Amino acid sequence: MTSVELHSATPSQTRRVGERIGRMLEAGDVVLLSGELGAGKTVLAQGIAKGLGVTDPVKSSSFVIMNEYEGQALRLYHADLYRLEDPAQVAELALDELAAGGVLVVEWPEQAGGELAQQHLLVRLSYEGAKGRGIVVEGVGARYAGMVQRLRGRGADALRGDLVWRAPTIADIPAISELAARSDAESGALDATLVGELASRLEWDGGIHNVSRVVEDGGLNVAAGWVRTMGSRACIYGFAKDERLYADVIHWLDGVAPRCVYDGGWIRIERVVAPATPDVPARDIALYESLGYERFYVELEMQLALVGTTEAEAGGLSLTPWTVELHPLIREAYNDAFKARGFEGYAEDDWERAFGPDDFRPELSFMAIAGEEVVGFVFCGVLDVLDDWVDPAIRGAGWIDSIGVRSSHQGRGVAPALLRRVMEAMRAAGRDRVVLRVSEDNARARVVYERLGFQTTRKHVVYRKPRGT
């Protein structure tokens, strides 16, 4: 069992400890509050509620066994078992079922006689006379032990009451950009390039306020983060002035992200680093792994300025624009091209969902045809959508989404020919540059791009875990 001892001199400091705990909680978590009458259990529960984003006043539940409160991301179930006469009544309350859909906080857990969850966070509050209250936080189970370690790491900061957590506004963007730039300077990252995406979301997405936070200390922004939803996955982005605040922000975002993606989906943490930076900081990697994330991939973002003219040498192949009639044949080429990299292949229905005509620009996408067979393909678009992930500095650039060549024609110049044809089309469409991403370990593709003049501008490091982990 892991524990940490704290001292609270005032009710506001007790609430602050509760707020710290509340921001670490996720759906299914159970917190038990133990202590004699007047020790501060309800005060600490109020802090937990604040950390969860509850705006309604949280009062003592002594005369009502259960109260429910709606938080920003999770529902709070606040139980007081003081007047419980028989531990067997706990089963009737179905507290385990309630906890599965929100956060369960229980005062007087001793009355339950061992009927509560075996793994939990236990907070013991005690009088210390005029000095205030003693607070001992114990983690029973690996997840809760991790929470205790974080509280221990915060030390006296766990009692500070001058940090304000709130939803960001468009007026915060300059300060968030400055904060991100300072963070990047220390870590060698380029995460500040993502702030433009948050600015765009604040202008059109009303739901962003439920999955984003800015943290103020004395009126200054010291941390910020948000969750971006993309169908089957949610991506977490965050910045902070120090590693402790960064951990707080990532924990909070990790708690709300499951609400942004359906069952079977994935939650990601994406970092952007400079080409020469080997990796994200080791302390951040340790944080991600403690939350159940695993490294998914590292992609290089490469750019090419479209200057001069380019001639596409087809090598006897026919390079033609995409057509709906040949789209099924492109699926066969795609499945063959990526089979060697472990891809199981798209079924017909999945293919239409992944690469429908609305997902790329047909006039900028091409096929290489040998006889009646599609032997290569390239899907392209333009980075002109307001909520795109791109650096605003390259918004409007051409985008190479996916390129592949059948195994029978690899190494025969098909990919370079397709890319040159794309460059011609992009230039004719008024684009001054083209951007793509490639896996860091795909050395063969990188050589092709570099020979055409592409240069790496930044690296995307992605960690992920299944929803519910």
Task: Round the Cα radius of gyration to an integer and report it.
Answer: 27 Å
Structural class label: alpha+beta
CATH architecture of the largest domain: 3-Layer(aba) Sandwich
The strand count comes to: 19
CATH topology of the largest domain, by name, is Rossmann fold
Uncertain parts: none
Number of helices: 13
What is the overall silhouette?
elongated
Distance between the termini: 22 Å
Name the strands of the widest sheet in spatial order: 8-9-10-11-12-19-13-18-17-16-15-14
pLDDT averaged residue by residue: 86
Number of structurally distinct domains: 3
Oligomer kind: single chain
Main sheet overview: 12 strands, mixed
Please report the first level of CATH classification, the CATH class of the largest domain. Answer: Alpha Beta
Helix amount: 25-40%
CATH superfamily of the largest domain: P-loop containing nucleotide triphosphate hydrolases
| Strand-residue proportion | 25-35%
Describe the structure.
The protein is built from 13 helices and 19 strands. It has 469 residues and is α+β, with helices and mostly antiparallel strands. The chain has 3 domains: 2-161, 3-Layer(aba) Sandwich (Rossmann fold), CATH 3.40.50; 164-283, Gcn5-related N-acetyltransferase (GNAT) (Aminopeptidase, 3-Layer(aba) Sandwich), CATH 3.40.630.30; 307-431, Gcn5-related N-acetyltransferase (GNAT) (Aminopeptidase, 3-Layer(aba) Sandwich). Strands 8-9-10-11-12-19-13-18-17-16-15-14 form a 12-stranded mixed sheet. Strands 1-7-6-2-5-4-3 form a 7-stranded mixed sheet. Helix 8 (243-256) links the parallel strand 11 (233-240) and strand 12. The longest helix is centred in the middle third of the chain and has 15 residues, at 173-187. The two termini are 22 Å apart. The mean pLDDT is 86.
